[in-house]
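Batch manifest, entry 17 of 40.
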Amino acid sequence: ASNELSIRLYTDSSNYIGVKSTNTFSSGTLYNVSMTYDGSETEAGLNLYIDGVSETSVSDSLGVYTGLTSTALNMLIGAQDANSPVNLLKGDIDTFKIFNAELTAEEIALL
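Output type: structure tokens
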């Protein structure tokens, strides 16, 4: 659906873990969106934050996720499906950062 936020980590197109925000977002509003992943290969290891606050989310997983093992597909931000992108972001991304460790809730709040 439109105005929703979903984050997925794929092993392949049939196996992924993900969470989806239970809130919708308004156009014309700037949001600070962050996610953390603890490396556990479980949906419970994904945490979503909006404006520095932990977000309530629901399951958006399929199959059995066994880690980020495939390098055959591109990483996508603001779209879904690397082969034929769909559900494209209708907006702008101002800043994007990847850290080499899981940030704490306190560190997320400072971003």
